[in-house]
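Re: [help] complex structure
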Amino acid sequence: MFTIAASPYPYVLPSGSKPCLIVIDMQRDFVEAGGFGEALGNDVSLLTAIVPTVKRLLDCFRALNLPIVHTREAHKPDLSDCPPAKLKRGGASMKIGDLGPMGRILIDGEVGNELLPELRALPDELEITKPGKGAFYATALQDYLHDLEITHLLFAGVTTEVCVQTSMREANDRGYECLIVEDATESYFPEFKQAAIAMIIAQGGIVGWSASCEQVIAGLEQAYG
Ligand code: C5J
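Output below.
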């Protein structure tokens, strides 16, 4: 048994277990200057700042031969997987499927929907499209994790309070032990990030744990290096 120093208390990795890194929605439209997120008036520099930290985590998981899953929030070009309630949201300015600065917004296959070039999935890593905010809704994620007998999930990506937190809550309800890597996740609204992490670790870790990238790498190298 190994541990990662974490809040609200150490995160235990039982011997024989293999944690999986879930990188949520590091897609160009959310993170890159000139994308949809910036067109909506968001300061994307907050999000681009975490890219090297997410890359460090990916490098660590790859070096230790641990599994990695990447998600993209994406819909089919005909929008048949986008519920009307989701399609209506966001005001009149730019809706899902409209033409944005990097192609149609949140549509699979468009340039803006690709993962950032520096964080691209390798051929042996699972890359899934998800039509919801959570990574489990209408995806093959649970079957994939079940087949690999994975019980421990580490989360990175954007945005902390939307897709990362939703995915973590979905995972928690399915019985996974979840940890959010606090400097490998970000929000356009720093106060929402802080609040989301506080909610996750409150009440003795009601949703899970949080730790820094440094703490995670130190724990993983000890356990699997
Ligand atoms: C994500 C969003 N990825 N904010 N999506 O958080 O709509």
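The first helix runs from residue 28 to 31.
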